[in-house]
Design goal:
two-stranded parallel sheet, 237 residues, mainly alpha, 53% helix, three-stranded mixed sheet
Length: 237
């Protein structure tokens, strides 16, 4: 609990220096580091502890459940959206209640999911849902785990074979004997790669970098229970 209070206090101090200023600087770096430390401590470090024990007695379900939560969290941070299951026509534009669209759009557009849920075809044209269908992963893995504590249909969670170099191999989905196997350890390291990529994107001195920082600040406000405040630019759509 002390860590939680310290994180909120740190963000409370940082946020006042960032309002109206989206140029990357030392204060933005403090915010990025705050986010990284929190995500690593709460999610990636516990997953790593489970992986390192090598028990191989069903812990993959715990790992992939957390990974699905991370994917949705990363997706929401990327676009600055906040979940509200009561969202209606009067709700702010930055709220969402259709998690499937948010989730699958992220699978369709992020580099770590290339050659899983999207590919580059002829003339570098993006082809979606090749070789795997993002909505099927959402329904049969994400929703299956979150709502029923199981994967569904032909989706299965497994540790990678010894021949797979989990820290560097990119392929975390593989079809074998009619089953779609999820190499949960490979996905763990690829999501770590994404965290680094996202952090680097937040540091970019570009128009896109500034927009990402605006969304990032809005999400940190929500994460640390700061109410929407029109005095802070990132709450203005």
């Amino acid at each position: 609990m002390d860590v939680e209070l310290q994180e909120k206090s740190d963000w409370s101090k940082i946020r006042t220096t960032l309002n109206q200023s989206y140029n990357y600087d030392r204060e933005w770096e403090k915010a990025i580091n705050l986010f990284n430390k929190r995500v690593l401590r709460k999610f990636f470090a516990p997953i790593q502890l489970i992986i390192d024990q090598k028990i191989l007695k069903g812990e993959g379900f715990t790992i992939v459940t957390v990974q699905c939560a991370l994917i949705e969290m990363f997706a929401a941070f990327r676009v600055g959206e906040i979940f509200n299951h009561r969202k209606n026509s009067a709700s702010p534009l930055y709220e969402y209640k259709d998690s499937q669209n948010l989730f699958t759009n992220f699978l369709h557009s992020t580099s770590i999911f290339k050659d899983h849920f999207w590919q580059l075809g002829q003339n570098s044209k993006i082809e979606l849902d090749k070789p795997f269908i993002a909505s099927e992963f959402y329904k049969n893995v994400r929703c299956g785990l979150m709502h029923e504590a199981r994967t569904k249909r032909n989706w299965h969670i497994t540790a990678a074979p010894l021949s797979v170099k989990t820290k560097i191999d990119t392929e975390f989905l593989k079809t074998e004997s009619g089953k779609i196997k999820i190499y949960r350890t490979v996905l763990h390291y690829r999501l770590l790669d994404y965290l680094k990529q996202y952090s680097d994107n937040l540091r970019e001195d570009t128009k896109n970098g500034k927009l990402l920082r605006k969304y990032f600040a809005r999400k940190l406000d929500h994460l640390f229970d700061f109410n929407p405040d029109q005095n802070f630019d990132w709450w203005i759509v």
